[in-house]
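Q: Two folds, back to back.
A: First:
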Amino acid sequence: MEYGLSYIIYCIGYYIAMFLFMMESTATIIAGGVLMIAIFWFILAQGTKRCHDRDNSGWFQLIPFYVLWMLFGDGDACENAYGDDPKGREMTDGTAE
């Protein structure tokens, strides 16, 4: 859910930055560039967090169409190499609660 909301925020920021680039003043182009760098950093950080939730390296988000797997796939149901399950599920007898 968090990654999906982050992706929506990224899309909104991207379109705002593109709107700023279309204006022809130097100040709006600089503002659009700064916004583009900030939202790119934001979506990379959120993507890395989501990859770690799925017990993958953050580099996996560079695979084409992997974003769909990150959006719709469930995370690991227990602790993995990158930390605890953010949903707080624990393994009991081989099944997740």
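A: Second:
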Amino acid sequence: MLYAVNDIFYSIQGEGYWTGTPAVFVRLAGCNLRCKWCDTDHTKKAELTAEQILMEIKAMVPRGIINLPVVLTGGEPTLQELAPLTTNLKQNGFTIAIESNGTNLKRVPNEVDWITVSPKSDWMYSTRIKCDELKVILTDDINPEDFRLTMYAEHYFLQPLYIDSRPSNLNDVVEYVKENPVWRLSLQVHKMIGIK
């Protein structure tokens, strides 16, 4: 089985609950949404097997590090058959996180340890979704409370919209969090400090 892969890199988690912690990111190509603020180049992709992905990950991770998280992101990772990849990663000692838009969570394999849902529009969610972390980008047409009513999460994060690596509506997000303390501020630290 071949996976359409946009990029594989070792860095720190730049947003949400695990901000500042090291992780390997496997950015899978393809998405079922077309968000105007998307920062993924959907034209760039390679076709790799699960074993080739594992070999690339092992080549970039320092020796002796165990239980390092591998974050499956995209695009939308659940559009691809993830079970062979997650099984391979789990058998090799990695913990597995996924970042999804939440439209296809039934396809998340059991081996996944942490689910982040970053929804893009509230009209898509007719059934209650459960995840570890809900991360909402505040835009003019989004009410974060709409998501909180349809999604149960352990942690709720609100994030400003980034334009050219800068938060465009940071003050609005800060005020919203102050008025609705179930939410926490999440910044895209990786963009702010200029790393991948």
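Q: And?
A: The two ends are 28 Å apart (CA to CA).
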